[in-house]
Specification:
Shape: elongated
Distance between the termini: 72 Å
Number of domains: 2
Number of helices: 6
Largest sheet: 6 strands, antiparallel
Strand content: 15-25%
Structural class: alpha+beta
Amino acid sequence: MGEIAGELMPILQALLPGFLMMIVFYWLADAKKPGQFEHVIQALICTGLIKFLVDGVSIVALWIGQWHALGVWTENVAMAWAIAFAIVFGLGLAYFSQHDVLYKFARKVGLTSRASVGEWRYAFLRFPDRGVVLSLKDGRRLMGYPLAWPAEPEGGHFVMEYPTWVDGEELVPQVGVTYLLIANNDVQWVEFLEPQENAE
């Protein structure tokens, strides 16, 4: 058992930056978590990229060290750089995913028609300042501003600010209620309203 652990530890240590990068990304991003095999492949790719960058930093550091020594380049220094790159890249990927940066560029140049998140999340992220009307399965309609919404089209809850029931042409505000929690299972469809300035 000790021999197996001794053989696995260097491998796990080498893959740590890639796994750390993916953990940071999946903690923050609204992305589906992959299976174990896919996760290992992603970690391998990320580890290779990070190793390439750390090797580049070491070359630059050694070159600068000819004139001004900042310290000794050791395995611990290399691991610290790798962990720093993993955290920064994980945060960067989560930001790009949340703000649809890379897919927006890919759509502009005609590489894809997809968004970085599913259509459900993309609709809410695309119109964050708009009110919505939730049409419930029992025929009622609720208007308000969604502060939070489910990550997927099934399950979860909407947190609606300034909830107002829509009864035909009449609006019936919820007096004394600032927020209302509605189960997504009760919602049949969602209508996005015009922005306030256009509505006026």
